[in-house]
Amino acid sequence: MKITVIGLGYIGLPTAILFAKYGHKVTGVDLSPLMTAQLNAGFIHIEEPGLEKDLEEVLLSGNFYASTKPVSADVYIIAVPTPNKTDQYQSCDTSYIEAALTSILPYVKVSDTIIVESTIAPRTMVDVVQPMVEKDGFAVGEDIFLAHCPERVLPGNIMHELVHNPRIIGGITDACTEKAAAVYGTFVKGEMMRTQAGEAELSKLMENTYRDVNIALANELAKISNHLGINALRVIEMANKHPRVNIHQPGPGVGGHCLAVDPYFVIAASPKQSPLMQTARAVNNSMPAYVVQQVQALMAEQEGNQVTLFGLTYKGNIDDIRESPAMEVKDGLHKAGFEVRVFDPHVSEQPLTGEEACEGSSLIVVLSDHNEFRNIPANYTDRMREAMVFDTKNIVQHVGTKVNYVNYGNLYKVKRTQKAAIVQS
After folding, report:
1. What does pTM read for this prediction?
2. Are residues 60 and 142 in the same domain?
């Protein structure tokens, strides 16, 4: 089978390489000449375990080639970004989807299958994709087969989960669904759930909206507990002993290409019917500023003005800083007048070592749950002006005995000056 994948980002590239690994002839398409040249030379531009090794394998087999232009294929998979618009409800920007369709339609022939993997708003397949295909004279479900098959993977474990996770197959028609199922059936070992396109679109969005709402509850609980002088983390631990309760963990906010983006697609489609989702977004969006306020309060007791941030990515053990709340915290601290240094071993643009980043600092703020941050060694904290750690991810397991360790469980206990208390309020 010949497959053309449009978009070689965090989802498109692993998808293209996996299809090639299972014997298909795959052309991966991206607009960046530099990126495609690097891929053809065996170098990947994202951090994902096992991906570079798999790339080398499919290049040697001749099953994968990266290009800046589409080629004729039997199956076209669209995995391009779908950012938020800047309108009132931050609705789904489908311009990249439309551009991808425009680029492949000259190559599309009768009996081909077009699959959109990009996360899209409800009714995008019917209201945007289908009309563009039909405008070219194709009868959907007879000449051309359209489906939405959203990814459901965890960065850091993508290659495994693409194979073993359940897969939603949402066709415009039943015939479209079966055609798309046959494509993924060449490697998917998880359940393939056949459904209609609209149900597939909304299901994907609700998976991430559920998590966003639950995290908002945890973040609001952290604020309440700090205000009342109660250990939020202990409250969550005990509440989750109930067999039907699963409160998530609080943090510095929500980021990434899913949780910080997808709920808006549902909200924009039904603004009057989604007050809970809108409130959850507001709570999570408020967390970076809340972290900055807590840092101001903690630093009011410290000597010096330097703060060290551990992590810029939105989650641990990856290099993805898209929509990361850590970036907002960084900007907020700069605006508040702090000298900010950053240590993130997963982000190449941050060259400082842990020792260098901590030199002369008065506070470490942990914003990403990288494995490297589970144990903060003495050769980091010994270099600090004053050794204090504010762990917003509750990831740190060991620090030195002379280090003042703070998280959302004991934040309320930290002694503050009257000035700091005013800042917090």
Report:
1. 0.91
2. yes
